[in-house]
Structures are given as structure tokens and as C-alpha cells.
Specification:
Elements (H helix, E strand, L loop, with lengths): L1 E6 L5 H14 L4 E4 L5 H17 L2 E4 L1 H12 L9 H15 L13 H16 L4 H7 L7 H19 L5 H17 L11 E4 L7 H13 L3 E6 L14 H16 L8 E3 L9 H12 L19 H17 L7 E5 L2 H14 L4 E2 L10 H13 L4 H10 L7 H14 L3 H4 L17 H27 L5 H14 L2 H16 L1 H25 L6 H14 L12 E5 L10 E4 L19 H7 L1
Parallel strand pairs: 1-5, 1-6, 2-3, 2-4, 4-5, 7-9, 7-10, 8-9
Length: about 625
């Protein structure tokens, strides 16, 4: 049975779900709570606070992704490797290369990393809508003036699916596979042990894409009750309605239709009307009422809502830092405060400067690629050398990454010798016997001799490893190139040097900086493995491998771990998932920013989407 709990923000939907989960736990009955990926950690904490030691073991919390993995672990299919977002972009690039002259509209963009990322985002969007490449190809001819572009996009999509079939699985396909496995188990009259006699509660979602709906349909057919909480005022849906709750009303209608399709009943929705969250904050209650209904009763005083007109972004940041510092002196934890803006890059520099001056801990999760990290630089230098690039530049670059078993004096001596004599490729393969001082009759001092010995030692180590590497990557497949790169780095002493660097950084700059340095190495080595997995037995030139590896680097995100448990969060309004902060500072509150004008993501325009719908 499908049960819907409807109510506006702060009406007590989550509290009601937890009370029902607790009641079931007290009766010895187990439950499952599904929340978005961003809330899994805070949900675990709330389950423990609400249910305590004795009862918290009676409920398991999942995201849709982790639930699908649990189903696949029980029913089979978990071992299939899943592509990352960066892997998607590489497969799109391979599909474009395979199509060659069949692509005209996007031909000149096929080598662009930005285009490949946008195409990967578009494929993800189409998969989220439940479309395959073949279905898009059927729909494209009827889409008017844009039919040519959509037909080419369908070709790319189909090429991507063909390459994917021999490589791994798209993340969206894992939800579909989990739904298949659950439906197959239900057809056999069986269920995974962790789902038997469970009731599922779904909270904090405002929409569900096609793969999630497929998995929800399987749960509706297999489980006695699925309860879903939605932010909806409960009023009937009116055709063409574009109000605040129109999206939630459409989702509720789709869920009722999904329940009927899977043979489950839909109970009468339970409606919560009171604004419990703002019962002691009349100003915020009035703002909520205004947003929901378009009108509100103005309270006599609203100290909890404050407006400030700033002349610039820098002044906004300065006043925000001053207000937060004042709250900190009053005993408010930084973790209970958040700063929200529409576009973080517009405010990042000003916020960081003002917060640093005010000594306020700040956490801002910004995308950072490993493209310019030491491990990535070392790998790219090796690939440059293997394809015939300048030895002097790339060998000195490789030496200066700090990942070779060379001392600082040896690296400096090598660079000075190379700068003085500009060795040719042949000279690099001969012993360094010239004067480190260059031309002249001067006699060499003991220091000169030592520097020449240091340069020679560095030359022998680097050239020996690089020549062996070049011999191994001629006319081989991508997997062999990845293996050769790794073992060349190992021969140069990269693993030991990396461990020593991490140890030194931990002593000098602390554990968070050391963990980030270790993560750079792990991510780049993981990308070498992903290249081997994506391209496998396919024979590629070193130049092609380097090109695709560069795309993989630019499409990857290192991520950031908060360096303190108590920090003010800087969040983007479009992506934020805040955990009940007590104080929120909204920057740039202006027309066109809140709400934001609709933007375009990927390769589809709004006209394309309308035509496909």
C-alpha cells in the first residue's frame, strides 16, 4: 500500500515518520528509511537520538543508491563495475571517434573536454527520464527544426550504450538492475532477507527520476506499505498550475499511478496543515505563508528576519562575517550557521577573505580536479616522453614532482646542468661529463664535481626508467600502457616518495593536508585503473591514451573533507542540503537570483525538451 504524508515545510512530516518508525520498533518490527544521498550521515545521527540504543537497531537508513547496492549484493549483480562521471565523458569521446563522418552537427566539438562532459550530462538526463538511445532515435525525426541535432545526439547515445555494454554499467542502470532483481525475486515468491516484513518510509525527496520510480514500483509490489512524505499543501491539482507546490502534486499523482500499476492500493493522503517549525518565530511563519499562498498576515514584530542593503558583494561578506562573529561570542556553534548564495564563485573570494580575517572556520565544497597534482603531472610527463616530446623539459618536470627517489640537491643539479648544456636526446643517454659551469677554462671545484655526480645520478635513474617505459608502450593496448605507467613510477621510487611526502605534510601542516595529498595519489592511480577498464584490450597510440587520460583528469573531482566538525557552511542555493541550521545568511537576494532564471544544462535546450515531451 502507498501512503502519502502531505504538508508544507515545517509541518511535522519527518517527525511523524520517526514517531511511526519508533512505534514499530517498540513492537519489535523493523523499518527502512530512504533519504537523499546528502542526508544519510545526519539521518543516522537522528535515528540514534530519536530511538536510542535499544531501538535504533530496528531501522536501517538507505539512499536509493545504497539500497540498490544492498539488493544487488543479495540477489547478484553487485560485482559489475560502475562508471564514474569522468568515465562517462571518456566513453562519449570514444563514441564520437567511432562515429567519425556520421556526426556533422557536433563534429568540430568532438575533441573538446567541455563538450564531452556536457554530452555525458545530457545522456544522464535522458537516462533519468527513462529514455534509451533507440527511443531517442525514434522520437528525434518528429521534433521539428531540431530533429537533425537530436538525431546526432541519439547516434552518440547509442554509440555510448554499445561501448558501455562491453565496459561496465552506467550508475543509473544499477537502479534499473536492482529493480529487475527485486521483481525476479518477487516472481519466485522470495525476497531478500533485509526486506522481509519491512515497512519503507521515504523522506526529504521532492522528485523521483525514472530509475528510482522503477525501484519504487518493485517495492510497492513486494512490500506491505511504502510511506512517502512530500512537501505539498494538499490542494487539488489544477491543469497548467505553476504554483509553488505544482511539482509535488505531479509527483504525488505519478506515485498513485505507479501504485495502481504495480497492484498496490493508495490510501487517502494524510495532510498536515500547521506550521510547527516556526510556531515561535512569527516573522518566518509569515514569510512561509507568503511563499505558499501569495499573501500573509504581517506580524507586529519580526526580529528573526533581518534585511540589509549592501553596496557590493564585499560589503555583504564583511557584514555577514561580523554578524557570525557576534553570534559566536554569544555561544552559537558555527555548525548551526550557514551562508547561502546563488552562485558560489561570485562570493567565494570575498567570503574567504572576510572569514579568515574574523577567524571564522568555513567549509566550502568546491570542485577540484587532480589535473595539476604531482602524480598527474608525473604521469603526463611520462606520456609526453613516450610520444616523442622534448626530453629536457619533461625529464626535469618529472624530477621536480617530488615523486622520484632523488634529493633536492640532485634535482637542482640536474636542472642546472640541463639549463647550461640543453642536452639533445642522444646526450641524455650518455654520461654527463661536461662542466656544470658551462664553457670556459675554469678548473672544476669539489662542489662542481659533486654537482656533476648528482646530475649524473639523476640522469641515470630517469633515463633508465623512461627508456624501459617507452619500449613497453609501443603498439600495445590501453591496459598495458596503464600498467607500464604504474611500474615506471614504482621504479622511480614514487610510492616511497609519496609516503614520505605525506608524512612530512602531516608533521608540518596537519592531518587534513596530508590526507588530501594521499588522496591525490589514490585518485590518479584509480584513473589509470579506470583507463585500463574503459579501453581494455583496445590498441591505442600513446597520444590517444594521453588525450583520453587528460579528459579523465579534467572530469574528475577530488572532493574535500571538512577540516573541522564545527564550521560555517557556504552553500549554493540550487544544491544545498542543510541540516536544520539555526541561523541562515542569504547573500545576493535579488530579482533573477531568488528564484533563479531557468538555465540550460547539457546539450538540450528548453525547446528540445518540450519537443521530446
Amino acid at each position: 500500500m502507498l501512503k502519502l504524508v502531505l504538508g508544507g515545510s515545517g509541518s511535522g512530516k519527518t517527525t511523524l515518520l520517526y514517531s511511526r518508525i519508533r512505534a514499530r520498533a517498540e513492537q519489535g518490527r523493523r523499518s527502512i528509511l530512504l533519504v537523499p544521498e546528502q542526508f544519510t550521515s545526519s539521518t543516522e545521527g537522528r535515528i540514534y537520538r530519536e530511538l536510542g540504543d535499544a531501538l535504533s537497531g530496528m531501522v536501517e537508513s538507505f539512499s536509493f543508491t545504497s539500497l540498490a547496492e544492498r539488493i544487488l549484493s543479495a540477489e547478484g549483480g553487485a560485482a559489475v563495475q560502475t562508471l564514474s562521471d569522468a568515465g562517462r565523458a571518456v566513453l562519449v569521446r570514444r563514441a564520437l571517434e567511432e562515429l567519425q563522418d556520421h556526426v556533422h552537427y557536433y563534429y568540430r566539438h568532438r575533441r573538446s573536454a567541455a563538450f564531452c562532459q556536457m554530452a555525458a550530462q545530457t545522456i544522464d538526463e535522458l537516462k533519468s527520464a527513462g529514455l534509451s538511445g533507440a527511443q531517442l532515435a525514434e522520437l528525434a525525426p518528429d521534433c521539428g527544426p531540431e530533429s537533425g541535432k537530436l538525431s546526432e545526439l541519439a547516434l552518440i547515445f547509442q554509440g555510448y550504450e554499445t561501448l558501455l555494454a562491453g565496459t561496465g554499467m552506467d550508475p543509473a542502470d544499477r537502479l534499473e538492475l536492482a529493480a529487475d532483481r527485486l521483481e525476479a525475486a518477487l516472481a519466485r515468491g522470495e525476497l531478500p532477507d533485509f526486506l522481509r516484513e519491512r515497512e519503507v518510509f521515504i523522506d526529504e525527496f521532492d522528485t523521483f527520476n525514472a530509475p528510482k520510480k522503477r525501484l519504487m514500483g518493485a517495492m510497492l509490489a513486494a512490500l506491505p506499505t511504502v510511506t512517502v512524505a512530500l512537501c505539498d499543501d494538499g490542494a487539488p491539482m489544477v491543469p497548467g498550475d505553476m504554483g509553488l507546490f505544482s511539482g509535488a502534486k505531479q509527483v504525488a499523482a505519478q506515485l498513485r499511478q505507479l501504485a495502481r500499476k504495480n497492484g498496490a492500493d493508495a490510501a487517502v493522503p494524510e495532510l498536515l496543515r500547521r506550521d510547527l517549525r516556526h510556531k515561535d518565530a512569527p516573522g518566518l511563519a509569515a514569510v512561509t505563508e507568503l511563499l505558499e499562498t501569495g499573501t500573509c498576515e504581517v506580524p507586529p514584530a519580526a526580529p528573526e528576519v533581518r534585511l540589509f542593503a549592501a553596496a557590493s558583494r564585499e560589503e555583504e561578506a564583511r557584514c555577514t562575517a561580523a554578524a557570525i562573529r557576534r553570534l559566536m561570542r554569544q555561544g552559537v556553534r558555527c555548525g548551526k550557521m550557514a551562508v547561502v548564495c546563488r552562485n558560489i564563485p561570485d562570493y567565494r573570494a570575498a567570503i574567504r577573505y572576510e572569514f579568515r580575517m574574523a577567524d571564522i572556520p568555513l567549509y566550502c565544497d568546491e570542485p577540484t580536479t587532480p589535473e595539476f597534482s604531482a602524480p598527474a603531472t608525473a604521469v603526463r610527463a611520462l606520456l609526453e616522453i613516450a610520444r616523442g616530446a622534448d626530453l629536457t623539459e619533461n625529464l626535469t618536470t618529472l624530477a621536480k614532482t617530488g615523486l622520484c627517489a632523488l634529493s633536492e640537491e640532485q634535482v637542482c643539479a640536474l636542472e642546472n646542468y640541463a639549463y647550461t648544456w640543453a642536452p639533445t636526446a642522444a646526450a641524455w643517454r650518455e654520461k654527463f661529463e661536461r662542466s656544470p659551469k658551462g664553457f670556459g677554462e675554469q678548473a672544476l671545484t669539489e662542489e662542481d664535481l659533486r654537482n656533476r655526480e648528482r646530475a649524473e645520478y639523476a640522469r641515470a635513474l630517469l633515463v633508465g626508467a623512461v627508456d624501459a617505459f617507452r619500449a613497453k608502450v609501443r603498439g600495445v593496448n590501453a591496459e598495458a600502457i596503464s600498467r607500464a605507467v604504474y611500474f615506471c613510477l614504482k621504479t622511480l621510487g614514487a610510492e616511497e616518495q609519496q609516503a614520505a611526502q605525506v608524512k612530512a605534510i602531516r608533521a608540518g601542516r596537519g592531518i587534513p593536508a596530508a590526507e588530501e595529498a594521499a588522496r591525490e595519489w589514490n585518485v590518479v592511480m584509480g584513473l589509470l585503473n579506470e583507463m585500463a577498464h574503459l579501453l581494455g584490450e583496445q590498441t591505442v597510440t600513446v597520444a590517444e591514451y594521453e588525450d583520453l587520460f587528460g579528459l579523465l583528469l579534467r572530469s574528475s573531482d577530488l572532493g574535500h573533507i571538512p577540516q573541522t566538525l564545527d564550521a560555517v557552511v557556504l552553500a549554493s542555493a540550487g544544491k544545498m542540503r542543510l541540516d536544520a541550521p539555526d541561523y541562515v545568511f542569504v547573500l545576493g537576494l535579488a530579482e533573477g537570483e531568488f528564484p533563479a532564471a531557468p538555465g540550460e544544462v547539457g546539450l538540450l535546450t528548453h525547446a528540445d525538451r518540450d519537443a521530446l515531451m
